[in-house]
């Protein structure tokens, strides 16, 4: 392994990191952290989609959702495989780690209540994934991930378009429009959370120095809002943010971050909280995380039992 200074100098000259020998200890640590968050997010995201299949109205649309689940598993596989290349025990991560130690965002630990929420998940949250991983795709100094993200980028684009086309059809009826607006009301704010701490609360970012990402959290959050609001405007659905010409940016219509009421499953817009509170909510995770991780474990157990019986 090399020193941070040595690596930073090489990166400034366009160096592409390929193996562990090319990395500094801090670089490897940050890469493992980022890949773990990505892998966990992709993997745990499939469970709420799987559960929401019951709400999908047509066979055609159901097949599309199954294709999306398959894509997300592929994306998780890419990130876990890269972790394995870095010597991380991925069997432990997936099948033995405590549910509380998974690193996915809070939203993935919930269940969706109707088809409008599933489509909104695709139109808004896959869009957040598209922005976050698109940033890695275009800027990362880690060659193996950059190459693998060609596939992920294209597929996330498809997930977003699927959500958009479904929502466009749904808002044509008054009842559908009402459901879509209700879904956007709470899920848009979950989308804001995806981008993490605001820049002014962050220490100087080694991730940016190492080119593990190219844009700051706030830059990506703004890019996502612009894109999401653009789409929502086109179907005349309100987002809880507006353009502020003074700061030249999108700002929320309420004090953000604010409190999430787990039991009522809605935001308390009049109750501001700190980012420490938000991170605390992420750490205690959502109500279905345990159930989702349990499904993974049971799947592995039945696979091993089959294999033990000489079937596989
Ligand atoms: Fe994905
Ligand atoms: Fe996706």
List keywords for this structure.
Ferritin; single chain; 4 strands; two-stranded antiparallel sheet; globular; binds fe (ii) ion; 11 helices; mainly alpha; 312 residues
Summary of the model, kept short:
By secondary structure, the protein is mainly alpha-helical. The protein is built from eleven helices and four strands.
- Output the structural class: mainly alpha
Give the percentage of residues in beta strands. 5-15%
CATH architecture: Up-down Bundle
Instruction: Tell me the total number of β-strands.
Output: 4
Q: What is the 3D shape?
A: globular
* Head-to-tail CA distance between termini: 40 Å
Question: How helix-rich are the residues, as a percent range?
Answer: 55-70%
CATH fold call: Ferritin
Mean pLDDT: 96
CATH classification class: Mainly Alpha
Pattern of helices and strands: HHHHHHHHHEEEEHH
Hetero groups in this structure are:
fe (ii) ion
Q: Cα-atom Rg, whole angstroms?
A: 20 Å
**CATH superfamily assignment?**
Ferritin, core subunit, four-helix bundle
| Arrangement of strands in the largest sheet | 1-2
Give the number of domains.
1
Largest sheet: 2 strands, antiparallel
Low-confidence stretches: none
What does this protein structure show overall?
The chain has 312 residues and is mainly α. It has a single domain (4-308), classed as Ferritin, core subunit, four-helix bundle (Ferritin, Up-down Bundle). The chain is 63% helix and 6% strand. The chain is built from eleven helices and four strands; from the N terminus they run αααααααααββββαα. A two-stranded antiparallel ribbon has the order 1-2. It has a two-stranded antiparallel sheet with strand order 3-4. Helix 2 runs antiparallel to helix 3 and helix 5 crosses helix 9. It starts with a helix and ends with a helix. Residues 72, 126, 129, 156, 159 line the site of one fe (ii) ion.
């Amino acid at each position: 392994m090399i020193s941070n200074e040595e690596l930073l100098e090489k990166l400034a000259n366009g160096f592409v990191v390929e193996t562990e020998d090319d990395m500094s200890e801090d670089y490897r640590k940050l890469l493992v952290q980022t890949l773990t968050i990505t892998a966990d997010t992709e993997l745990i995201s499939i469970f709420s989609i799987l559960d929401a299949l019951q709400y999908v109205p047509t066979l055609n649309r159901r097949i599309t959702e199954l294709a999306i689940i398959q894509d997300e598993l592929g994306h998780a596989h890419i990130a876990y495989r890269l972790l394995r290349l870095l010597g991380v025990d991925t069997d432990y991560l997936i099948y033995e780690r405590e549910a509380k130690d998974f690193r996915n965002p809070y939203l993935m630990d919930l269940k969706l209540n109707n088809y409008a929420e599933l489509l909104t998940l695709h139109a808004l949250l896959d869009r957040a994934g598209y922005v976050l991983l698109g940033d890695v795709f275009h800027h990362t100094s880690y060659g193996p991930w950059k190459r693998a993200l060609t596939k992920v980028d294209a597929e996330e684009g498809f997930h977003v378009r699927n959500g958009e086309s479904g929502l466009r059809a749904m808002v044509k009826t008054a009842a559908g429009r009402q459901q879509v607006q209700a879904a956007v009301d709470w899920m848009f704010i979950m989308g804001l959370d995806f981008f993490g701490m605001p820049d002014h609360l962050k220490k100087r970012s080694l991730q940016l120095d190492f080119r593990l990402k190219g844009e700051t959290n706030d830059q990506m959050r703004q890019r996502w809002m612009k894109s999401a609001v653009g789409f929502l405007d086109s179907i005349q659905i309100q987002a809880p943010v507006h353009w502020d010409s003074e700061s030249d940016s999108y700002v929320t219509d309420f004090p953000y971050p604010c409190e999430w009421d787990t039991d009522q499953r809605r935001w308390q817009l009049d109750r501001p909280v700190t980012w420490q509170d938000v991170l605390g909510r992420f750490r205690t995770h959502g109500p279905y995380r345990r159930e989702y991780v349990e499904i993974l474990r049971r799947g592995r157990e039945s696979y091993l039992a089959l294999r033990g019986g000489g079937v596989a």
